[in-house]
Structure formats: C-alpha cells, structure tokens
C-alpha cells in the first residue's frame, strides 16, 4: 500500500498537474494584501526559527517581511484577478494575414511543487482573423500567468487560451523553454536540462504552419 505522503511527493517530483486551472480556493481574496503579508511574515519567522536561524541578526531579521511582501506583491501577484492585464485589441486595418511571432519573452515563474524558480523564454504567435493585439500586451499576459505557483504545461495553455479569447480566434500558439530549479538545484541536480512545452491552436496544428513557427524561433524540437 502506497503511503499518501509518498504518493504526493512522487506527484511533485514528476511535475504532475491535477488541474488545468490554478487550484485557488473561493475565499482566496477575502484577506487584503496587508493581512496576507502579516500572516506569511509570521509563518516565515517560524520556518527560520525552526531551522535554527538567529532572527536578531541584522542581516536576517528583515527577511520574514521581505519574503512575505515578495510573495504577495511580486512572484505570486498573478493569482489576483484584479491584476489581470487588459488585453485591448484593434482592427487589423492593414490586413496583415501572416503569423505574428513575439519570441524570447522572459518567463519568471515558480514551481508549485517545491516553490523554486522556473526561468526561461516564451514564444507566442497568432494569425489575425480581423483583430490584432499590442505587442507589449503579449508580454504582460505571459507575466500575469507566470506570477503564481505554476506547472509549465498549465502556464503554456493559459497563455494560449487568454489570447484566443482576446483575439477571437483559435489560431494562437505558445512554446515555452525553461529551466526548473527543482530539477537543476535539488533531486537529480541536472543543471543542463530544460523543459519545453507547447500549445498549438487552430491553423498552428497544421504541420507546415507549425514548422514555419519553429523556423521563426529557431527551435529544432519536434512536435
């Protein structure tokens, strides 16, 4: 019989996701940001004290507050729907009909299994069906969904789904190539490996269109 704790560890070590949406409780935003910071601050203090750290030392005594603010305001800020970027779109008046590719968008996210960084690049593309979106909005959409405890497969899907909704077309694709520090710095400690995920919608499912996209971003991975 498998111990439940061992089973949950195995899920995390194998980067398995049980949900295509981030597992957020309905009461996730009942507390204000300041209230969350105060709670997390106490939890971080407890962790550091349990590890034996001296919280009276000048170097570390501010760490609980810094970590709490970082969690709420920065690296997990994308959990709050009030921070979702407005994906304003415009008429494609110049009738551009080929794919548009925004490549090498910086990805800073956090693995939800070990709360360690995921660092890499996202390549996002779409083919207009009458609407276009500002280039910076594509970066902001990537940033918004990355700033939460994540699984790379889910992040890739969320970026595509958000752009499909904004642009009114299925013809959207996203490829992410990222390093997971839970693989690089612990466990197997493989510092060279990276993880590539993809989500192809509409015309991007066509092998020729898919190949054209991969040529644009100079990625040799086969899908």
Automatic annotation (TrEMBL):
<dbReference type="InterPro" id="IPR018234">
    <property type="entry name" value="GTP_CycHdrlase_I_CS"/>
</dbReference>
<comment type="pathway">
    <text>Cofactor biosynthesis; 7,8-dihydroneopterin triphosphate biosynthesis; 7,8-dihydroneopterin triphosphate from GTP: step 1/1.</text>
</comment>
<dbReference type="GO" id="GO:0008270">
    <property type="term" value="F:zinc ion binding"/>
</dbReference>
<feature type="binding site">
    <location>
        <position position="182"/>
    </location>
    <ligand>
        <name>Zn(2+)</name>
    </ligand>
</feature>
<feature type="binding site">
    <location>
        <position position="111"/>
    </location>
    <ligand>
        <name>Zn(2+)</name>
    </ligand>
</feature>
<keyword id="KW-0479">Metal-binding</keyword>
<dbReference type="InterPro" id="IPR043133">
    <property type="entry name" value="GTP-CH-I_C/QueF"/>
</dbReference>
<comment type="similarity">
    <text>Belongs to the GTP cyclohydrolase I family.</text>
</comment>
<dbReference type="GO" id="GO:0003934">
    <property type="term" value="F:GTP cyclohydrolase I activity"/>
</dbReference>
<feature type="binding site">
    <location>
        <position position="114"/>
    </location>
    <ligand>
        <name>Zn(2+)</name>
    </ligand>
</feature>
<comment type="subunit">
    <text>Homopolymer.</text>
</comment>
<keyword id="KW-0378">Hydrolase</keyword>
<dbReference type="InterPro" id="IPR043134">
    <property type="entry name" value="GTP-CH-I_N"/>
</dbReference>
<dbReference type="GO" id="GO:0005737">
    <property type="term" value="C:cytoplasm"/>
</dbReference>
<protein>
    <recommendedName>
        <fullName>GTP cyclohydrolase 1</fullName>
        <ecNumber>3.5.4.16</ecNumber>
    </recommendedName>
</protein>
<keyword id="KW-0554">One-carbon metabolism</keyword>
<dbReference type="GO" id="GO:0006730">
    <property type="term" value="P:one-carbon metabolic process"/>
</dbReference>
<feature type="domain" description="GTP cyclohydrolase I">
    <location>
        <begin position="40"/>
        <end position="217"/>
    </location>
</feature>
<dbReference type="Pfam" id="PF01227">
    <property type="entry name" value="GTP_cyclohydroI"/>
</dbReference>
<keyword id="KW-0342">GTP-binding</keyword>
<dbReference type="InterPro" id="IPR020602">
    <property type="entry name" value="GTP_CycHdrlase_I_dom"/>
</dbReference>
<keyword id="KW-0547">Nucleotide-binding</keyword>
<keyword id="KW-0862">Zinc</keyword>
<dbReference type="GO" id="GO:0005525">
    <property type="term" value="F:GTP binding"/>
</dbReference>
<dbReference type="InterPro" id="IPR001474">
    <property type="entry name" value="GTP_CycHdrlase_I"/>
</dbReference>
<dbReference type="GO" id="GO:0006729">
    <property type="term" value="P:tetrahydrobiopterin biosynthetic process"/>
</dbReference>
<dbReference type="GO" id="GO:0046654">
    <property type="term" value="P:tetrahydrofolate biosynthetic process"/>
</dbReference>
